[in-house]
Design a protein that fits this description.
By secondary structure, the protein is mainly beta. The protein has three helices and 13 strands; from the N terminus they run E-E-E-E-H-E-E-E-E-E-E-E-E-E-H-H. The longest helix is centred in the N-terminal third of the chain and has 8 residues.
Length: 184
């Protein structure tokens, strides 16, 4: 497994090395020992408590979501299909506060993203169907949900395909300006 740093502080892109043959492929999608060693925190992998999966049709956007309070760390990967995955640093003391970065997550390379607490996260399904798997380090508490509208002009996220569907919650999400006023 190759682990790369990204343009955003503390975010890691993990790229497994699939073994491919005439049967298909086999890949290790997560290795706790390598994860702990990379973070320099023994036992960090054991802090992940919940796995979830979403299925989205092409063009669907889910996001931009985050958590208030102490936030949540997550590992995100696309198990089937492909997504344009976007994260935004919302940690006021971070050197990359307000910066965003996009990643292609798909079922060809099997890369997955380690997103530490303090980020907004969202994605757009690029394939006919996309299954995204999330591993988080805290039980979900809806009272801590925060979000910014996926088309917020201040964030100006460049979604690569026409948007087909967003949830009512995401369509009603607030602005980047309102969120930053709360955070700073």
């Amino acid at each position: 497994m190759i682990i790369d740093t990204t343009d955003l502080a503390d975010v890691l892109l993990m790229r497994p090395t699939p073994f491919r043959d005439d049967r298909g492929l086999f890949t290790r999608t997560f290795d706790a020992e390598i994860f702990d060693e990379t973070l320099g925190r023994p036992g960090a992998a054991a802090q992940f408590l919940q796995d979830s999966q979403s299925r989205s049709a092409q063009g669907v956007i889910r996001g931009m979501h985050g958590r208030s309070g102490r936030g949540e760390a997550k590992l995100v990967r696309c198990a089937h299909g492909a997504v344009h995955d976007v994260i935004v640093d919302i940690r006021p003391d971070s050197p990359t506060f307000g910066a965003q970065q996009a990643f292609l997550l798909d079922d060809v390379e099997f890369a997955h993203l380690y997103i530490p607490p303090g980020f907004l996260h969202g994605f757009q399904a690029l394939s006919t169907v996309a299954d995204v798997c999330y591993r988080i380090d805290r039980p979900h508490d809806p009272s801590e949900d925060i979000g910014v509208h996926h088309a917020d002009a201040d964030l100006a996220i460049a979604w690569p395909q026409p948007i087909t569907t967003v949830s009512a919650r995401d369509a009603a999400a607030g602005s980047w300006a309102a969120l930053t006023a709360q955070l700073t």
